[in-house]
Amino acid sequence: MTINMEQNEKSNLENNRYVNRARLLVKCSDKPGIVSALSTFLHQYDANIIESNQFSTDPEKGMFFIRIEYYSDNLPLKAKQMEKEFEKIATEYQMEYHFYYRNIRQRSAIFVSKETHCLLELLWEWQNGDLETDIALVISNHETARSMVEALGIPFYYIPANKDIRQQVEKEQIRLVEEYQVDVLILARYMQILTPDFVNHFKNRIINIHHSFLPAFIGAGPYERAFARGVKLIGATSHYVTNDLDEGPIIEQDVERVDHRDDAEQLKKIGRQIERRVLVKAVKWHLENRIIVEGNKTIVFQ
Predict the structure, then answer these.
(1) Which CATH superfamily includes the segment(s) 106-300?
(2) Which of 46, 58, 183, 246 is flagged as catalytic?
(3) Per-residue pLDDT tens digits for 128-172
(4) pLDDT of 230 over the 90 cut
(5) Taking a C-beta distance cutoff of 8 angstroms, is the pair 283, 122 a contact?
(6) Distance between the two ends of the chain, CA-based, in angstroms?
(7) What CATH code would you report for 20-101?
(8) Per-domain residue ranges for the chain?
(9) With contact defined as beta carbons under 8 Å apart, do 294 and 64 qualify?
């Protein structure tokens, strides 16, 4: 039995385990009665609330955000009717909302270049069963990661990329992503700038890791610039990709203290450790439906 077949069996077991569990994410203007309306609605379908987290930016004029995870017997038979009935509440409160069903795993595509530390961390978490996703494929503009990816039974696609053939490359990437029915794209140190057309095609579905504590040292070579500046803290930032380079909604950040004895290469070594853990956290939270994007910020329910 191949590793990929073993992973598929694990996925099927997880899907069956969570067949009656779902999550509901809601964003709307704050006003009295929202929580009551949601609770009453779920109660009508014999749904038991397992976890509920909410946040309001301002009780008088602000926005309201909530994430609810619930259990309901025979949920697959009720789901369509529940969604149809929920439209009335959504209209009344002018809600943006989404139902996520735990037995339907999101499918991901990982994009990587030469450096493989973030890719390896994602593969390790996936093998452990700690990522709620099926890794559908890996796409790279280098051959470096092929053997480690294909050893796990994951399709690997080598697509050379540079600024002169960018549109042609992205057309092929979009074709593959759609063919594999991918839900989320993970840039695990994929060192290519994406075009606006590509980004717009996958709005709030591309997660990047930037090797700097943004907004400091945007763009290329942040560790060299950090060393030249004599910083005492270095970090990494995971964010959703927008058409503003390295300025998309931030999901997670972390830092490590450094000092004058650390040269640029040592900063990179420390930085790689930060990048790995920050990217994995961000991807997990996305897959667990813990993130709501509001403008250029995120609400992250932990």
Answers:
(1) Formyl transferase, N-terminal domain (3.40.50.170)
(2) 246
(3) 999 999 999 999 999 999 999 999 999 999 999 988 899 999 999
(4) no
(5) yes
(6) 37
(7) 3.30.70.260
(8) 20-101, 106-300
(9) no
